Amino acid sequence: MFVSPATAMQESVWWIHQRARNKSLYNLTWRLLCDRPLDAERLRAAWQRLTDRHEALRTAVQRTGDDITLTVHDTRTARLHVVEVEENDEELARLIAEEVQEQPIDLADAPLARLTHVRVGDRHELLLTVHHIVLDGWAIQLLMAELSIAYEGGEFDSEPVPFTVYAAEQHEARAAGKWDKTIDHWRSTLDGATATTVAADRPGRFGVGAPGVVIRHMLSAEASAGVAALAKASFATPFAIMLAALEIVLARTAGNDISLGVVAANRMSVRDQALMGYTANLCVVRASIEDGDTIAQVVTRARDGLWQMFAHQHVPYPAVFAALPPATQASLTDASPLLVSYLGPIGFDLKLGDVGLTWLASPNRAARADMAMSFAEVDGGHRAELEYNTGRYDHDTVVRLLDDVDLVLRSDPSLTVGALPVHTRAVTGRAEAEVVEHQALPAGTEWNVIAEEWAALVEEPPTGPDADFFASGGHSLHVVRLLAAVRDRLDARVDIADWLVDPTPRRLVTQLQSTDEQTTPSTLVTVQDGPGTHLHLVHGAGGGVQDYRDLVAALPDDWRVTVSQEVEPLATLPMMARAYRTDLDLAGLRPDVLAGWSMGGQIVFEMAARDPEPPLLAVIDSTPPVDQNYPEGIEREWFQIFGRNLMASFGVEGEFTDTLVISARLARAGHQVPAHVLDERWAVFLRHAQASAAHRARGPQQTRAVVVAADLLDSQLDQWAGLTDATTHRIDADHYGVLRGEAARRLAVVLVDAAVQ
After folding, report:
1. Is the pLDDT score of 427 beyond 90?
2. What is the mean pLDDT of residues 665-684?
3. What is the DSSP string of 162-224?
4. pLDDT tens digits, one per residue of 27-83
5. Nearest to 281, CA basis, from 290, 272, 289
6. Residue 236: its H or E element
7. Which of 156, 121, 131, 155 lies closest to 56 in space, CA to CA?
8. Apex 635 CA angle, 630 and 640, nearest 5
9. Residue 516 has what pLDDT?
10. String of b and e for 156-189 (b: at least 16 CB within 10 Å)?
11. Cα–Cα distance, 234 to 231 (Å, whole number)
């Protein structure tokens, strides 16, 4: 393992990743439909060969002090996940792909890439997901070609160039002043430039990681013919022609000065073209367009502008941006609101050995910008793929933009810009103005310092304690300056990564005022307050307060109901019992009834064992804590229990094999519960189930108890009778149904009757 400096573009992606609302923002997933079944073991072995071969697939990216660094591991286990569903369901396959894309990638934990083989009925898909910080689109194309060779068991033609060699060259070039002339060029070219974007359907500033969606749109045959004719007449590339068409559409309402973000492959040499890593760069292309200009004239200028851009694409945009005057930084921002790229034939004619692959639309749900548009050559024509922020734009607005671009491309090149009947409305600036309600900041030294330093960077103080720094006009360069100034003036440590989770004055003040003595939050939750009988409930395996909502609703209104909810992982049931008992004591509470469902019943039994005067116990379908044999493969059974309960709580049915399928089924029913959230819940459930299975009661105790059975066997009721002075009740329901609907109402009656006896 060794550590290397990250490139400037990787640093920029790291910062944007930290502040993004959706951490899947820079996940790139190629969703590939297979024309025949895949061999999972061959695929696993091939993926491991590539991971062993390429540094980029063994690299983690993290913050070390004030620097962003690359940690390259000597070895790493490749990640291949296999998902199988028996039913044929194309929509479910799409939703599974979206869930795979949505799962965040921890930048500090290599590899930052994963492969997922999905079989839904007879349909086979291969999902390759990488984080953009280590690979770009060009590199993914190279990766797929090598994966095909490895899948067939073939040999590679050459040894790869380590990406860290490229990263080191970047740092050396900057230190030696080799970027200075290009930075001067960009400083002059972009002086006074303002970003151009499509007018939003809803107000607000654009933000990275907002909810998004991707659509594909084939340009008309007439538009593709127009591209070919213009290319022949002007010697322009298809990309220059499409860029010109987009600039013309925007100039009709945004004015004659258009600035767009162009994503360039930035592979300047044969060596770079074979490099497995992230070399792509953002360049801002600026165009001046008048109503009297013809389409042909704008195309010619776009051609020349792109050639000029290519000559200066090697200097990373963060370095260019840092050199711009503050006013230009404010009007352009470090993340362009409208991005354009040209893929050419990338992603087509793909194979995995003898398996043909068809590249499907991206399953991305997060927007990198207002809009990110790419053009590709496909089926003898051209296709646009457009990712957009659904919080700001309607589908019709996006389609209208694509139709307007198509209109320009199929029009007579001699037509003037002013004669084109486009319908898209565009604006200059990051976003249209929105009304912001100002709120006074609380009094105090920390608040005053933050307000002053904030205003010094973005020209006005925060609009309130919860104002978002980036929505207020801040950018990544400002973050370092703001927090350094606050740290120096107040002599206090500030965690940048923690603040970026919620970049507001309130969170910053909370950090500044925090001490090293952190107290653990109470496990006690009050669900219903009242002067009557006090019922205290304890959660089941993987459960919480929400499991008891039907039961609480069925109890008398004057009952007081509290619940113990785990707030930090506890390894054993006795540890949970002690923690929950302690928090009850600290609150001065002595429940009249101590109840628990499933694992919770075992915990309340343990809590009562430590109480010299135990309250009434209510054990709800809990396995007795005595010696039991658990068969091999019990974890698979536990997962089925977990999944069925989870899906039933949303009223969703269907086969499932893992959390990706559960999440996809929930999404289809209108419930967005990301798979990574379900993974966390399953991990808690599994830990609880293991703790419950390992727990054994120390012995019987003389305490009054009521045991409510749903799935419990008669023999298990006898075991509870041997542990407590118990009366038993049966409710016609399964283990999970006993807490729902009519069964929960009958359970409430049992508890009320037992409490008054």
Report:
1. yes
2. 92
3. PHHHHHHHHHHHHHTTTTHHHHHHHHHHTTT---EEEPPSS-S---TTEEEEEEEEEPPHHHH
4. 999 999 999 999 999 999 999 999 999 999 999 999 887 789 999 999 999 989 999
5. 272
6. none
7. 131
8. 115
9. 43
10. eeeebbbbbebbeebeeebeeeebeebbeebeeb
11. 5
- CA 262/CA 300 separation, integer angstroms: 17
Q: Are 444 and 505 in contact (CB under 8 A)?
A: no
Tally the C-alpha atoms within 13 A of residue 382's C-alpha that lie toward its C-beta: 27
Amino acid at position 633, single letter: G
Q: Which of 466, 217, 250, 420 is nearest to 337 (CA)?
A: 250
The least confident of 120-129, 272-281, 435-444, 527-536 is: 435-444
Partners of residue 284 on adjacent β-strands: 261
Cβ-based neighbours of 636, under 8 Å, separated by 6 or more:
none
Lowest mean pLDDT among 237-246, 285-294, 570-579, 696-705: 696-705
With b for 16 or more beta-carbon neighbours within 10 A and e for fewer, the 285-324 pattern comes to bbbebeeebebbbbbbbbbebbeebeebbbbbbbbbbebb
Nearest CA to 665 out of 93, 282, 37, 165 is that of 93
The phi and psi torsions of 336 (rounded to 5 degrees) equal: -60, 135
- Quote the tokens at residue 109: 């934990």
Instruction: Indicate whether 551 pLDDT > 80.
Output: yes
pLDDT value of residue 433: 46
Nearest to 431 by CA among 378, 483, 473, 379: 473
- Which regions of 337-480 does DSSP assign to beta strands (E)? 338-344, 350-352, 355-359, 366-367, 371-378, 381-389, 426-428
Percent with pLDDT over 70 in the chain: 97
Nearest partner of 751 among 618, 623, 621, judged by Cα? 618
Cα 427 from chain centre: 29
Q: What is the largest CA-CA distance in the chain?
A: 97
Residue 169, token pair as written in the block: 């060259």
**Tens-digit pLDDT profile for residues 167-197:** 999 999 999 999 999 999 999 999 999 999 9
Phi, psi of 284 (to 5 degrees): -100, 120
CB 388 within 8 A of CB 371: yes
CA distance 600 to 622: 7
386 vs 248: CA distance, rounded Å? 18
Q: Which residues of 552-573 are buried (b: 16+ CB within 10 A; e: fewer)?
A: bebbeeebbbbbbbbeeebeeb
Residue 283 phi, psi (nearest 5): -125, 145
Provide the H-helix boundaries in 54-103.
90-102
Q: In 411-490, which residue ranges form alpha helices assigned H by DSSP?
A: 445-458, 476-490
Q: Contact at 8 Å (CB) between 244 and 298?
A: yes
The per-residue pLDDT of the chain, averaged, comes to: 91
CB 99 within 8 A of CB 133: no
Of 58, 67, 74, 66, the C-alpha closest to 6 is 67
pLDDT for res 89? 94
Q: Which pLDDT band holds residue 650 (cuts at 50, 70, 90)?
A: confident
- Residue whose structure tokens are 């609150």: 587
Q: How far apart are the first and last CA of the chain?
A: 68
Helix or strand (DSSP H, E) at 153:
none
Give per-residue pLDDT as tens, 118-149.
999 999 999 999 999 999 999 999 999 999 99
What integer pLDDT is reported at residue 206 of this predicted model?
A: 61
Q: Which pair of tokens denotes residue 90?
A: 């194309």
Assess contact for 417 and 290: CB atoms under 8 A.
yes
Spatial neighbors of 471 by CB under 8 A, at least 6 apart, are 204, 205, 207
DSSP annotation of 288: E
